[in-house]
């Protein structure tokens, strides 16, 4: 092939096919001609644009006249590409008299290294994801086994504990007057302890059912105020023992919401019971129900020492040890808030704690207003 | 059921690098309760073999082949919740699957590991380009009943042989099986020199041997 013909083929190849960032520039940097690759990389026609405007030049270090002088060495410059990511290219500048050529190439070795790295990282990520899926499935299986065991144990314990509780009650009612006061005290301890054990077992059964996904809601339209009334029957007795005043404040004309009334009653009872336990003797517990356009908001505020912010989320964990102490030495299973949260979340609601140390704690939940 | 139409659509999306569309097809098949093994053999394996052939015939670039593999590996993640949920390790057996050193193609080995899981084995997958000492250390720790070595590119046969020899030397009684696309056109004679080492050509044969 003649030299002229060969040059023409090469020039044509560089202009239209090769991955070479070729531009012909006026002395002020205006682009007079650009290769197809250059325009493809930048994402637009380049004629009449200025070369320096294509560069990501952080420190104004690119001085075109100097580059045009230094024709014997390569200069790494960063081109702003159409993808938004800059691409580093190695440029060689050549003077053609009145105009200049800029020829930029990629670093093939660097690209190959990066390609291998990307493939390896992707594989590692994929393998780690596989391990996580496998471990998650194993943990879920173990958790299900634990719940099954817990449920079975609690179920089997419930009946004998119930018998102890019933007989202790019977003996206290019928024989307390005829036995020594010391023995009556023993019976009262048996009664109180078995009542507490029954609560633990009931809570375990609830948690076991919730964790196993056997938590079916019987949703019916109902007023939260009516459910609250049911709860207060129980909670008032508990409050009277510490001479705690229960103040109830409900907005007028609250709408009905779809709920499993017995479950919501359980959540409300747990929250008020907690508030009473954490309030001092002669203290005060405020209960309120309000609503906005989307939610019914139920809240209980105690007059206890409050809960530090760092511990508020932990209060919903099972058996969590926190600095929050009962004021009357009451015993609790440590599952009440967890059960309340599960109940509320199963209804599509949210539960939260709002408290400052020394100013009591407010536990509230929302229920979406839906009538169907 | 994975019809020819579904497969062709999937292959076209895979070749075009359309991850989302491929994922939509896989999700749809999972919703239809298509067996996991069918997904692996009739969709993932079949399409990757097709991609490999296109690459060998210079019809697609290495980059596109890598993209198809990467998309497929990502799609395995959609299957994992169901795969591992069903596994109960009733076989009480463990297998370690590894790729030879310098072997960068891992998806075949990973699919083999998953097939073991489907059949009640605890399958530990070491991944691509596993250094020999790392593999031996892992075998020592895990004490598997079986080791599987995957080779996709015949060019890496020397690394595979080195792996087998090291296993034979350190764990004389450990069964080893070998598989992979590298042996598509033969070359398994070399394995006959090693005791307790067998070539298993297909997932079907593997399954018939490992299922309880």
Describe this structure in words.
The complex is a heterodimer of chains A (372) and B (212). By secondary structure, chain A is of the alpha+beta class. In chain A, 48% of the residues lie in helices and 19% in strands. Chain A has helices at 3-16, 36-42, 64-69, 108-175, 181-211, 224-241, 261-278, 309-312, 336-346, and strands spanning 21-25, 31-34, 75-80, 86-95, 100-105, 220-222, 245-250, 257-259, 284-291, 295-301, 350-355, 361-368. In chain A, a hairpin with a 3-residue loop joins strand 9 (284-291) and strand 10 (295-301). Chain A starts with a helix and ends with a strand. The model of chain A has no long low-confidence stretch (mean pLDDT 88). Chain B has 212 residues and is α/β, with parallel strands linked by helices. Chain B folds into two domains: 4-86, Methionine synthase domain (Methyltransferase, Methionine Synthase (B12-binding Domains), Chain A, domain 1, Orthogonal Bundle), CATH 1.10.1240; 93-210, Rossmann fold, CATH 3.40.50.280. In chain B, strands 2-1-3-4-5 form a five-stranded parallel beta sheet, sandwiched between helices. The longest helix of chain B is centred in the middle third of the chain and has 25 residues, at 62-86. The mean pLDDT of chain B is 93.
């Amino acid at each position: 092939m003649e030299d002229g013909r060969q040059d023409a083929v090469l020039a044509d190849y560089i202009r239209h096919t090769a991955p070479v960032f070729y531009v012909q520039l006026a002395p002020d940097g205006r682009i007079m001609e650009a290769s197809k690759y250059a325009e493809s990389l930048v994402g637009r026609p380049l004629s009449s644009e200025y070369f320096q405007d294509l560069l990501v030049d952080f420190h104004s270090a690119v001085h075109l006249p100097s580059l045009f002088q230094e024709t014997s060495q390569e200069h790494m410059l960063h081109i702003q590409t159409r993808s938004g990511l800059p691409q580093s290219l190695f440029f060689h500048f050549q003077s053609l008299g009145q105009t200049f050529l800029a020829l930029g190439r990629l670093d093939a070795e660097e690209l190959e290294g990066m390609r291998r790295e990307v493939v390896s990282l992707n594989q590692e990520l994929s393998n780690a994801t596989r391990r996580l899926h496998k471990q998650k499935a194993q943990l879920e299986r173990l958790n299900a086994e634990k719940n099954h065991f817990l449920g079975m144990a609690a179920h089997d314990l419930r009946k004998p504990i119930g018998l102890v509780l019933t007989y202790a009650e019977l003996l206290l009612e019928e024989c307390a007057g005829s036995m020594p006061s010391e023995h009556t005290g023993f019976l009262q301890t048996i009664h109180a302890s078995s009542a507490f054990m029954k609560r633990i077992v009931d809570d375990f059964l609830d948690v076991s059912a919730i964790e196993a996904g056997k938590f079916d809601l019987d949703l019916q339209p109902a007023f939260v105020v009516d459910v609250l009334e049911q709860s207060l029957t129980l909670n008032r007795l508990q409050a009277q023992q510490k001479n705690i005043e229960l103040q109830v404040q409900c907005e007028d004309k609250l709408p009905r919401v779809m709920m499993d009334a017995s479950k919501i009653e359980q959540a409300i009872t747990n929250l008020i019971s907690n508030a009473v336990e954490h309030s001092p003797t002669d203290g005060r517990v405020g209960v309120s129900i309000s609503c906005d356009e989307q939610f019914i908001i139920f809240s209980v505020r105690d007059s206890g020492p409050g809960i530090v912010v760092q511990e508020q989320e932990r209060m919903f964990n099972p058996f969590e040890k926190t600095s929050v102490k009962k004021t009357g030495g009451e015993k609790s299973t440590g599952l009440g808030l967890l059960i309340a949260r599960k109940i509320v979340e199963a209804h599509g609601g949210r539960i939260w704690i709002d408290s400052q140390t020394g100013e009591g704690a407010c536990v509230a939940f929302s229920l979406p207003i839906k009538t169907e | 059921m994975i019809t020819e139409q579904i497969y062709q659509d999937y292959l076209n999306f895979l070749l075009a690098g359309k991850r989302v569309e491929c994922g939509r097809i896989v999700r749809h098949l999972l919703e239809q309760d298509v067996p996991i093994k069918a997904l692996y053999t009739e969709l993932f394996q079949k399409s990757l073999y097709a991609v490999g052939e296109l690459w060998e015939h210079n019809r697609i670039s290495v980059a596109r082949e890598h993209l198809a593999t990467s998309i497929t590996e990502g799609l395995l993640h959609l299957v994992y919740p169901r795969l591992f949920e069903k596994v109960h390790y009733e076989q009480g057996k463990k297998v370690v699957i590894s790729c030879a050193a310098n072997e960068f193609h891992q998806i075949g080995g990973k699919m083999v590991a998953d097939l073991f899981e489907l059949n009640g084995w605890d399958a530990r997958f070491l991944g691509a380009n596993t250094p020999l000492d790392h593999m031996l250390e892992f075998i020592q720790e895990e004490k598997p009943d079986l080791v599987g070595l995957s080779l996709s590119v015949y060019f890496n046969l020397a690394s595979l042989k080195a792996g087998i020899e090291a296993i034979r030397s350190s764990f004389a009684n450990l069964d080893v099986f070998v598989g992979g696309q590298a042996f598509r056109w033969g070359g398994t004679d070399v394995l006959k020199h090693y005791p307790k080492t067998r070539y298993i050509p297909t997932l079907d044969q593997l399954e018939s041997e490992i299922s309880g």
